[in-house]
Design a protein that fits this description.
Layout: H1 10-19, E1 29-31, H2 32-37, H3 42-50, E2 55-58, E3 61-63, H4 69-77, E4 79-81, H5 83-90, E5 101-104, E6 116-117, H6 134-144, H7 147-159, H8 165-173, H9 192-203, E7 208-214, E8 218-224, E9 228-233, H10 235-238, H11 241-256, E10 260-265, H12 266-271, H13 273-285
Parallel strand pairs: 5-6, 9-10
Antiparallel strand pairs: 1-3, 2-3, 4-5, 7-8, 8-9
């Protein structure tokens, strides 16, 4: 019986899957088609599985022994990771979720239980990469997210350099639910909490500016009127002792300069919004957001 030797050594395979310039195997999951393009016949992939370098997830898809759980779940269910799950994988801010969002390999497929099935309502070739790119993920997210959450996700993707504004426009122009209109509401926000605050305050006709530079302090997240600074705290940027000390130094300096500082967490914006709005309205209604005359 003929033995088929793979062109891949275990080290070369690891380097290709985790460090490919084309990011061909995000999350440590790779399609057989991509591997065969590099010269391996089907039987050689069986050799890699037998040797433990790869594990078969489903027909035509393989994983490294260490792979991202959500990506493996998506592929095992019959699709690829997309929508908010893929955006989170790429590093964009999205609302927290419990189960992976998955696009089926074929639009007519029904995925296995335990995942959220997403549709983009557009015929595409069968996927060869286990995680959808940012543009396609935003397109899928326009079906799953509310307008304000979609704006926050777009803000985050743009601020993080994950996508260009024109690519967002191209992705959302043909999205359902008038998803392209969300692009007009984006701004220079550095967190999802900041985006939600900005959008809600503007919707209530409370004048707010984002990422305003203040001499001696630097940029603040949001500025209402002349002197009400609202800082949108997040775990990613405001946790740890160094961040805590830096935030307190900024708060002290802002107070010394006459500013009012209000720190708001993601949990407060989502679960305690009436209390947050009441605090902001009290300051605005009293005119304290303006410099004394």
């Amino acid at each position: 019986m003929r033995t088929h030797t793979s062109v891949w050594s275990p080290d070369a395979l690891q380097a290709f899957v985790t460090g490919s310039p084309c990011y061909a195997a995000p999350g440590g999951v790779v399609s057989a088609r991509l591997l065969r393009r590099r010269g391996d016949p089907h039987e050689a992939l069986d050799t890699l599985v037998a040797g433990g370098a790869l594990q078969r997830v489903r027909r035509g898809w393989y994983r490294l022994p260490v792979a991202d759980d959500d990506v493996v779940t998506a592929v095992a269910a019959g699709g690829v990771l997309t929508c908010v799950s893929a955006l989170a994988f790429h590093g964009a801010w999205v609302p927290r979720g419990d189960i992976p969002h998955v696009r089926p390999a074929r639009e007519t497929m029904r995925l296995d239980a335990g995942v959220h099935q997403c549709s983009i309502a557009r015929r595409l070739p069968a996927p060869v990469v286990a995680v959808d790119p940012v543009a396609l993920s935003l397109r899928a997210a326009s079906n799953c997210l509310s307008r304000e959450y979609l704006v926050a996700a777009v803000d985050s993707a743009l601020d993080s350099g994950l996508i260009r504004r024109q690519d967002v426009a191209d992705a959302l122009w043909w999205a359902p639910n008038r998803g392209h209109e969300s692009l007009a509401e984006t701004d220079w926000a550095q967190s999802g909490t900041e985006s939600l605050l900005r959008r809600r305050l503007k919707g209530l006709r409370i004048g707010v500016r984002v990422q305003v530079a203040i001499d001696g302090v630097g940029r603040v997240d949001l500025l209402v009127g002349d002197r009400l600074v609202i800082e949108a705290d997040s775990v990613a940027h405001h946790s740890g002792p160094d961040a805590y000390r830096s935030d307190r130094r900024r708060d002290l300096l802002l107070t010394t300069l006459g500013y009012l500082v209000l720190r708001v967490s993601w949990e407060q914006v989502i679960y305690e919004w009436p209390a947050v709005l009441q605090a902001i309205r009290r300051i605005v209604d009293a005119g304290e957001h303006r410099w004394p005359r």
